[in-house]
Prior knowledge:
The complex is a heterotrimer of chains A (289), B (122) and C (301).
Chain A: E1 2-6, H1 14-24, E2 29-33, H2 42-45, E3 48-62, H3 72-76, E4 82-85, E5 88-91, H4 101-105, E6 111-125, E7 131-137, H5 145-162, E8 165-169, H6 176-182, E9 187-192, H7 196-209, E10 216-223, H8 229-237, E11 241-246, H9 249-256, H10 266-283
Parallel strand pairs in A: 1-8, 1-9, 2-7, 2-8, 9-10, 10-11
Antiparallel strand pairs in A: 3-6, 4-5, 6-7
Helix pairs in contact in A: 1-10, 5-6
Chain B: E1 8-13, E2 31-36, E3 42-46, H1 48-51, H2 57-67, E4 72-74, H3 80-88, E5 92-94, H4 102-110
Parallel strand pairs in B: 1-4, 4-5
Antiparallel strand pairs in B: 1-2, 2-3
Helix pairs in contact in B: 2-3
Chain C: E1 2-7, H1 15-26, E2 29-33, H2 42-45, E3 48-59, E4 62-63, H3 73-77, E5 83-86, E6 89-92, H4 102-106, E7 112-113, E8 116-127, E9 130-137, H5 146-162, E10 166-170, H6 177-183, E11 188-193, H7 197-212, E12 217-221, H8 228-241, E13 245-248, H9 253-260, H10 272-289, H11 291-294
Parallel strand pairs in C: 1-10, 1-11, 2-9, 2-10, 11-12, 12-13
Antiparallel strand pairs in C: 3-8, 4-7, 5-6, 8-9
Amino acid sequence: MIIAIASGKGGTGKTTVSASLASVWKRPVLAVDMDVEEPNLHLFLKQASVSRDAAYLDVPVLDQALCKLCGACAELCQFKAISLMGGHLLVFPDMCHGCGGCMRICPEGALQKGQRELGVVEMGITADGIPCLAGRLRIGEALSPPLMGKVRQRMHAHASKYSLDILIDAPPGVSCPAMTAVQDADMVLLVTEPTPFGLHDLRLAWLAFRPLGKPMGVVINRAGLGDDRVQTFCQEKGLPLLAEIPYRRDIAEHYAHGGILAHLDAGMKATFEHLVEQLDRIGGAVNHA
Amino acid sequence: MTAAPIHKIAITSEGPSLADPVDARFGRAGGFVMVDLESMATTYVDNGSSQVLAQGAGIQAAENLVKAGAQALLTGHVGPKAWTALQATGVKVVQGVENMTVGEAVTKFKAGLFAFSDAPSR
Amino acid sequence: MHELVVISGKGGTGKTSLTATFAHLAENAVLCDLDVDAPDLHLIAEPAVQRSGPFISGRVAVIDSAACTGCGTCGEVCAYDAIHSEARHFVVETTHCEGCKVCVVLCPEKAIEFPDRLCGTWYESNTRFGPMVHAQLDPGQENSGKLVTLLKAKARERAAQLGLELILSDGAPGIGCPVISSLSQASLVLLVTEPTPSGLHDLERVAELCRHFRLPSTVLINKADLSPGYQAAIHAFCQTREIPVVGRLPHDPAVTGAMVRGKAVTEGPDTPFGAQVRQIWWDLRSQLEAPSSSLSKESRS
């Protein structure tokens, strides 16, 4: 079973919920941090690092001796990663989206595969034996989805090999990176807060993910902080409200010290164990081995 | 700054004439006023093909400039990729040209008041 | 013309609430919501839209099923898993399509069209705080930064037309393309953080981005009373990187209370919290107007 924990708005508590779910999950599980721009899951799961591998995108490298300056590559490239001007063929590897088109279309074989570093893929294991996978984008790298693709490959391979369920901590928002993160999930769990910003962005998330046809559920974090319009929205749209985490100072402070919420007290543990049961029921206990 | 004398220059511009204000941007400038320094004849090169791009506007603008035969560019600032392109094709660049009309920029250039840049300003 | 860009790395630190508050205090600014993925500033600013338009960016492949012979070349060459087969022909999954044109060019039947892609809508509006530019990207679209760039250009034009000197830009979370585009031509970057492990971790990454682009930046520690330990850690980080700390604000439910009412926190009765925000705004304003002299606030523990 694969569950993605997502939200429209940043800072609602995706990582908080993901870390707690991983810590009380009933079956062997792989925790995956797909927020490659700002990966935070490790701050709570505190896994010991087992491996860190650089991930690369294939980008063109020009062999000038073979180039006849026909310009077919420059004409094809939609991203201005190759340009023909003033009798010079210039390659801008930072602009490349990795489509491979230029290399396919060059009649002279003058473009070879080079590499641009996207970031790193990190694998670790917590003190309790939970395997954790994360991507970390190189600062200055503009594109998240290619690195997320590398994380996804590793995720499927590892989870398959060891018959693990998967929990995916997704990036915020509803644009390309968020869609990329949830695409493999059997179910999407949306984390929100009961404020106007929380409601607005929950609606965006619901609109964005609905076409994927995956069952969705909602967790309200900081319940009691704002008003009840989020609950009303969930009822109207038939979105099951699966858990509420109250707005409490001691919870905020526990989080501020890197604590896993499910470990705070018996009440929080019960909240997350109950959430796990709900996710099993809705997401189905499908074994992806 | 030796080599061939420069007789054709381009100025990023908000409009097609010498009276129009300089556009400080390069990649997303509306267009370039091309000036033949000997005859002072001007033509306008539309840069719309760069403005529509999601990325690489500076590179496209450099292509447009080179195709129009510019030997030097006067503009506010040039980004690192456009800079690379202009260097590779031998176009000289003057940056910091802003808050004046195209005509004023040309006059200052002819009077030798500008220095060519040796790096992109951002 | 000065532009203050408010970013955070981590979501939920209070960028939007603070930007709205500065907009209330500023009086002569153009407001700009650059979080085009999940914009929220309008929930407080309550814009009356004056003009809007489609945001077109990139292109998308569309297979003409009548002309498709089912050879599968497109599926083989697609680097993004965007093409799958349906019955005896092939179909492009638009949300995965990168718009690279490879299938279009290599299709032996020339059966693939390549129209422009409508990605969202931009708005130019008026608010009680002043003019505002904002946008909404359609769900699932690539957030390339082009819409951010477009909004920034519109904000500048609007400011120039109205003789306004200041642009206040609410940025997006993260460090990717839209954030990079947000930072372009910023006079000052305000990094809003919170004293938690994630707050510090993400601050480090976003501060590095600002350093990479050589932009003057300053830090505001929001919800500062949550953890004295992490507050100290943030001060220490700022000191090491020589980034001034413009101030700290305690966690105050009045901010959420104001948000629920659709207001900036300073629009209510005067409170000590409001006074602290005003002081911070005053300092930011001074830094924007005299950049060389006042980036000197030492970080204090």
